[in-house]
TrEMBL record:
Name recorded for this polypeptide: Phosphoenolpyruvate synthase
Superkingdom of source: Bacteria
Organism: Alistipes hominis
InterPro entries xrefs: ATP_grasp_subdomain_1, CheY-like_superfamily, PPDK_AMP/ATP-bd
Occurrences of domain Pyruvate phosphate dikinase AMP/ATP-binding (ranges): 440-810
SUPFAM superfamilies in UniProt: CheY-like (SSF52172), Glutathione synthetase ATP-binding domain-like (SSF56059)
Length: 991
């Protein structure tokens, strides 16, 4: 399919279905005697009957009714309350008859529709015919059918919305031409019943309740003409969006003509006029004269005898077949045998490729495919197909493929931006984001669903040449499934129990998932082709002010050829994520955030992993974390320019604080780590992660990386993806070349992407950050992955994986730093993030610089954790100072503490050493939690002159605790601490 074709189809994404049927009848005034009202309502409950009709047809917003018993009451009420949308009056209304009443109402409210509703009798008919009914919009005969009230309301609404919905959007219409009140009072309820039922059927193709509701607004409208001139006017105005015409044979020419002037063959004239203009327009003649059947046959149109005992059945059948209602039925052109039936787009896509050439030619020539699509509200797809004609293609096979591809693209685009309810009967490859259950999606899934809709809103998926942007195939298991799992397996006791993480995990994995969930997961697996990431999405996760980033587990499983085996792996992963709610670290974090463990609920996000398989491993070309706010800009960078951390392979390296490539998306060619060969050799990515595709490697473990393989970069140079991200160190010439074809050490520089724009990654990230920040109204952090290992000529894939807010809680108050001297300070930093003054802190825990050994960082982490527990018990806060990157998963880059192990720290200082220089923690889960809790954060490199750390002053204080590696001191008075995030400076000194 050409880009132009895709553009025509995706135009549907600009159609706001919410703007259809904007004008509604919400308040109805009913005028009639008590007897009339009782007769009309049968048992005095018209509100209930209409409400039930709306419910039965899945319609929303049923109107309310107000009843008065006389014309005088009506006029008084309308003067006091002008908010009525429709007036329905019975024939006998008291002092002022209905004809004069209608004129008075029209003078008072010129735009309100007025309908006369009366029982049928010849005398009343003659009276109406002899009166001036110019102020009455429609007259109907009451047959005791409550559907008629619904019909009147929908007919008025259709007339009010016709110009916008039909002419501007493309909603289809049916023209009924009939001057007999008796007959159109019978026909219209039947036609509306068909239309509304059809609307309900095609709305089932919608992917969720909201989409269903909006799609119903696209139902065909019904236009009623009671004379020849009005019929011609309506036809000429709406003919490009007309499904068909139903017409009487004899009727008057103009609205006010007497019945005696009826032209007996006006319907024949109308038929000839329309057929001359459009020979393919379906036309149904109806007459009380059976002799007109022959005339209809000569004209090649349908015919129904008005007095037929099967009148309504024949009418339904004709509309269903000729007006493109119901299934699309393909028949053998010679025998009339049904050879195919399309209930929905999926069926049609398949049948278009299978039906005989002459059948496809027949329907294509008559625009029947497009008409069927229009009737179902598929406007852009219908417009694309309608523009086709058989001469557009050099073969019928090309025509088949074009139509099938157009449907295929439409179905894919239909799934963009939508959270579909998971239905095992209709779930297929075209549904990208679905949910199981009715509970909460959880924070992570909620962010994904939001960005899914924003990517759709801003048309990101095809915005960049050579790259498709979308979420990976996603299934969310809502929190009510978690509740059911806990309840059915009797696991409530875990909430208050004091058992180890391993015991909790064992209990959960040995329990059973609900059978209905297992059945749904089996269907999901059948439509998945890649390994699956099973990710936590708790109610508290990724929320404002307490993101819970990286607190719960994420497991990855391979997709095997054995469905049952994959299902077992998936079930084990889901139950492991459930169990992580109750792990010790999770409990501690929930306690630190003043939340209750019993209130935490876990949803689960299951996503296909971005990437490709290579040598038994699976990973993407690029994983990254981008932030719209850069807390530590360098050079020409500004904080609002944002910051990106990229890694080759799985994103675990990035979010766990490993060595990655850092750059500003506004200046992708200015990368500090690549500014000299020495920095490139020492400061770029050292290792990468990949998923081991052997199913036996996924074992029950509290370590969610149990089946992830870590490779040193130079031992990963055989992977295909390396050619996209690596450069080569030319030792002989002491230079770096942007090629992987030469021999030598490989360095992950992403130069082909950042310097030569093989894909516009920096621009994509800039645009996504700008959009996300605009829509969330706060700085954001996002995770993404890119697959460039695609067949030649195929677009690369940019998968959006997660979004979360960055809490901007900086104080508006800054110090006058010209008045602040760093002399005598324990710590002074020129790179800092924080909230201003921090009080009531007397304790400092620091790592002895002279004893620091990067090989013993895990031992240091254990000591810090024990001290933190003691501080928590004593309800004390402290300043934490140490070299390298706090919270790194790589012990060679800093102290690998978990967040819960330093939860009582109010200020954290990363202090570089001359022989131990590491980039700060931006882009990690650890850093996200740190900034969200408002913890003061400083990074200093005294040897570079950007701050100071007076370790000697601390060494001179008496220790509360000290070991070979760690020291804890306590001052008698609170320290003076000020962290000025707006000016990026901070100071700590004795109070």
């Amino acid at each position: 399919m050409t880009q132009d074709t895709i553009g025509r189809i995706t135009a549907d994404t600009t159609i706001d279905y919410g703007n259809l049927m904007r004008r509604r009848i919400r308040k109805v005034l009913l005028i009639g005697s008590s007897y009339d009202a009782f007769t009309l309502e049968e048992d005095g409950r018209i509100d209930v009957q209409i409400s039930n009709e709306y419910i039965d047809l899945n319609l929303s917003n049923p109107p309310s009714f107000r009843r008065v018993s006389s014309s005088v009451e009506a006029l008084e009420l309308l003067r006091d309350d002008p908010g009525f949308d429709l007036v329905i009056s019975m024939f006998n209304v008291g002092e002022i008859d209905v004809f004069h009443l209608s004129k008075l109402i029209r003078e008072q409210q010129p735009d309100i529709p007025i309908v006369l509703l009366t029982n049928f009798s010849r005398d009343i008919g003659m009276r109406i015919e002899n009166e001036d009914t110019s102020a009455i919009d429609y007259t109907f005969y009451w047959h005791g059918n409550p559907d008629l009230i619904l019909t009147i309301i929908k007919l008025i609404e259709d007339r009010m919305n016709a110009d916008n919905d039909i002419l501007q959007v493309g909603v289809q219409s049916i023209l009924l031409v009939e001057d007999s009140v008796k007959y159109y009072s019978t026909y219209l309820p039947t036609i509306y019943k068909l239309v509304l039922q059809q609307s309900r059927e095609f709305a089932k193709e919608a992917l969720n309740e909201q989409q269903q509701k909006l799609r119903k607004r696209a139902r065909p409208k019904i236009l009623l003409a009671t004379n020849y001139a009005e019929a011609v006017e309506l036809y000429e105005k709406y003919k490009n969006n007309l499904l068909g015409v139903i017409s009487d044979v004899g009727f008057v020419i103009h609205k006010d003509d007497p019945a005696s002037s009826e032209k007996l063959d006006a319907g024949i004239d109308l038929c000839k006029l329309i057929k001359k203009d459009n020979p393919q327009m379906p036309f149904l003649l109806q007459s009380s004269q059976e002799s007109m059947r022959a005339t209809a046959e000569e004209l090649g149109v349908g015919f129904i005898a008005k007095y037929s005992k099967t009148l309504l059945i024949e009418l339904s059948d004709y509309i269903g077949e000729e007006f493109s209602f119901g299934d699309f039925v393909f028949k053998d052109l010679k025998t009339g045998t049904v050879i195919g039936r399309a209930r929905d787009l999926r069926d049609l896509q398949q049948l278009v490729m299978e039906i005989p050439e002459e059948v496809l030619f027949y329907h294509g020539e008559r625009n029947r495919l497009s008409k069927w699509m229009y009737a179902r509200g598929l406007f852009s797809l219908a417009a694309t197909v309608r523009k086709l004609h058989n001469g557009s293609f050099d073969s019928i096979d090309r025509m088949r493929e074009f139509i099938a591809q157009a449907i295929r693209e439409y179905r894919i685009l239909q799934g963009y931006g939508v959270v579909a309810r998971f239905d095992p009967d209709t779930y297929d490859n075209y549904i990208g984001f679905a949910r199981i259950g009715n509970g909460s999606l959880g924070g992570k899934a909620r962010g994904l669903a939001f960005m899914n809709s924003m990517l759709h809103k801003y048309r990101f998926y095809d915005k960049y040449e050579g790259v498709r942007i979308y979420l990976p195939r996603t299934l969310v298991i809502a929190t009510d499934c978690f509740d059911e799992f806990i309840r059915e397996n009797g696991l409530q006791y875990v909430i208050n129990s004091d058992i180890s993480d391993d015991e909790i995990l064992s209990e959960f994995v040995s329990s059973r998932l609900p059978e209905s969930l297992v059945d749904d997961l089996r269907i999901f697996i059948r439509h998945s082709s890649k390994p699956l990431a099973v990710r936590s999405s708790s109610k508290l996760e990724d929320s404002h002010y307490q993101p819970f980033a990286g607190i719960y587990s994420t497991y990855m499983i391979p997709m095997t050829s054995n469905e049952d085996q994959t299902l077992r792996l998936l079930g084990k992963a889901i139950k492991s994520v459930y169990a992580s709610v109750y792990f010790a670290s999770s409990r501690a974090y929930i306690q630190a955030t003043a939340n209750l463990l019993s209130e935490e609920k876990m949803a689960v996000v299951i996503q296909e992993v971005c990437g490709t398989a290579d040598s038994g491993y699976f990973f993407p070309t690029i994983s990254g974390v981008a932030r719209s706010l850069n807390f530590y800009p360098i050079g020409d960078e500004k904080p609002q320019d944002g910051i990106v951390n990229l890694a080759f392979g799985l994103g675990k390296l990035v979010v766990d604080g490993g060595q990655t490539l850092r750059f500003s998306p506004r200046y992708p060619k200015n990368v500090l780590q690549l500014s000299t060969p020495e920095l490139a050799l020492s400061e770029t990515q050292r290792e990468m992660y990949a998923l081991n595709l052997k199913p036996e490697e996924f074992k029950t473990s509290i370590d969610d990386a149990v089946n992830l393989q870590r490779f040193e970069i130079n031992k990963a140079k055989h992977f295909r993806n390396m050619r996209h991200v690596a450069s080569t160190w030319d030792m002989q010439n002491q230079r770096i070349t942007d090629s992987t074809f030469e021999d030598g050490r490989k360095i992950v520089t992403f130069s082909r992407i950042l310097k030569y724009d093989t894909i516009p990654l920096a621009q994509i990230v800039c645009d996504l950050l700008e959009m996300g920040e605009k829509e969330m109204r706060c700085p954001i952090e996002m995770e993404f992955a890119v697959d460039m290992d695609v067949p030649y000529g195929t677009d690369c894939v940019f998968n959006f994986l997660q979004i979360r807010p960055i809490v901007d809680t900086q104080s508006n108050v800054s110090l006058d730093w010209s008045e602040v001297s760093p002399d005598g300070a324990l710590v002074y930093a020129e790179h800092a993030l924080g909230l201003g003054a921090i009080g009531d802190v007397c304790d400092v825990v620091y790592i002895r610089n002279e004893a620091f050994d990067s090989a013993r960082t895990q031992q240091i982490a254990d000591e810090i954790g024990a001290l933190n527990n003691r501080m928590r018990a004593e309800k004390r806060s402290y300043v934490l100072i140490g070299p390298g990157r706090w919270g790194s998963s790589d012990p060679w880059l800093g102290i690998p503490v978990k967040w819960t192990a330093i939860s009582e720290a109010k200020v954290i200082v990363e202090c570089g050493l001359e022989n131990f220089r590491v980039e700060p923690s931006q882009g990690t889960h650890f850093f996200q939690n740190l900034t969200s809790f408002g913890v003061g954060y400083m990074t200093i490199s005294p040897f570079l002159g950007d701050g100071a750390f007076d370790a000697a002053q601390l060494d001179g204080e008496q220790a509360v605790y000290e070991s070979e590696l760690v020291r804890h001191v306590r001052f008698t008075e609170p320290l003076y601490i000020y962290v000025d995030g707006r000016k990026n400076k901070g100071i700590i000194r004795k109070g």
